[in-house]
Write a structure and sequence with these properties.
The structure is a single chain. The chain is an alpha/beta fold. α9 links the parallel β10 and β11. It folds into 2 domains: 148 residues, Rossmann fold, CATH 3.40.50.2300; 139 residues, 3-Layer(aba) Sandwich (Rossmann fold). The protein contains 11 helices and 13 strands. Helices cover 41% and strands 20% of the residues. α2 packs across α10, α5 packs parallel to α6 and α9 packs across α11. A 7-stranded mixed sheet has the order 1-3-2-4-5-6-12, sandwiched between helices. The chain has a 6-stranded mixed sheet with strand order 8-7-9-10-11-13, sandwiched between helices. It binds beta-D-fucofuranose. Beta-D-fucofuranose (GYE) binds next to α2 and β10.
Length: 326
């Protein structure tokens, strides 16, 4: 038995650089003959959004025309770089990945280019000196999402006297959604002197960190917090718990606006604990599949492909909840 396991482990190591651990876990899907081999490196499993995104990508690339090699980076850039190198070594037809952070990709993307493997970015952008290092990016407009969150706040604060003290739970440091949502939000609130961001810290897009950081905000600011802006719903949901444990009413004592539009956010809005969520649609699997087909066939693709989305408030939560697919 032990020997068999040893052989299995060796085989596993030979086929993919890592079956678990290393690049954070990888696997293959059943594929038809002549299938397009796609190496996909996912950020991790940090949020409800990400779970829905992974499901969408896996479903779309489960068709026999694709052979999917999926790898989970557990929110670490070094794991993603390893996974990309492993995909290059395997000679996949197309690489797709959702970059954890924006910078630090030039070298590995140059390696992919030298190997003639087109790269499709999903969800998050990169900051590279040479735009030809990737074929296209399919994802949301995070700056606009930040603006939408702020515009909701401005509208909701009509007639209110200042100062309106805001705490901000930021996403993963250096990630495109954290950078851009912060920028979009600030752009709008900076035009109105009543708004002040009094604390700002990363909660890494997770519930657990969102709760911890909100606890620290509450310790530092006491009852002087009017608004929480969270870069994603999961951190807002974690923060709601912290606010309740501090004896305050989330949604009333502290108004909360976050981003993603996941089911948990709709439930929190229905319960009156979250005020608004800005939609960020994770179901981009089908668009990704089409881009993979196109770049593989050598067809021209737009450099930027957008995902459609909206804003939802408490009064819409009950009616919208049954329609939510994530
Ligand atoms: O908002 C957050 C996730 O990159 C858009 O990552 C994505 C973000 C999403 O962890 O929940």
């Amino acid at each position: 038995m032990r020997n068999l396991m040893g052989v299995a482990a060796l085989l596993c190591a030979a086929v993919l650089t890592a079956c678990s651990g290393g690049d954070g876990g990888a696997d293959t899907a059943a594929a038809g003959e002549g299938a397009i081999t796609v190496g996909f490196s996912q950020v991790g499993a940090e949020s409800e959004w990400r779970t829905a995104n992974t499901r969408s990508v896996r479903e779309a690339l489960a068709a026999p025309e694709f052979d999917l090699r999926f790898s989970d980076a557990q929110q670490k850039q070094e794991n993603q770089i390893k996974a990309l190198r492993s995909f290059i070594a395997q000679g996949v037809d197309v690489i797709a990945f959702s970059p954890v952070v924006e910078t630090g990709w030039d070298t590995v993307l140059r390696e992919a280019k030298a190997a003639g493997i087109p790269v499709v970015l999903t969800d998050r952008a990169v900051n590279v000196s040479d735009e030809s290092l990737y074929a296209t990016l399919v994802g949301s407009d995070f700056v606009e999402e930040g603006r939408r969150a702020a515009r909701w706040l401005v509208e909701d604060s009509e007639g209110e006297a200042g100062p309106i003290r805001i705490v901000e739970l930021q996403g993963t440091v250096g990630s495109a959604p954290a950078n851009d949502r912060m920028r979009g939000f600030k752009e709008v609130i900076d035009a109105d002197a009543r708004f002040q961001i009094v604390r700002s810290q990363s909660g890494d897009f997770t519930r657990a960190r969102g709760k911890e950081v909100m606890e620290a905000f509450l310790r530092a600011e006491g009852r002087n917090i009017d608004v929480l802006f969270a870069h994603n719903d999961d951190m807002a949901i974690g923060a709601i718990q912290a606010i309740e444990e501090a004896g305050l009413k989330p949604g009333t004592d502290i108004r909360i606006v976050s981003i993603d539009g996941v089911r948990g956010a709709f439930e929190a809005m229905k319960a009156g604990k979250l005020n608004a969520t800005v939609e960020c649609n994770p179901l981009l699997g089908p668009q990704l599949a089409q881009l993979v087909r196109d770049v593989h066939a050598g067809r021209e693709v737009p450099k930027r492909v957008m995902v459609e989305e909206g804003v939802f408030t408490q009064d819409q939560a009950e009616a919208e909840l049954p329609n939510r697919k994530y």
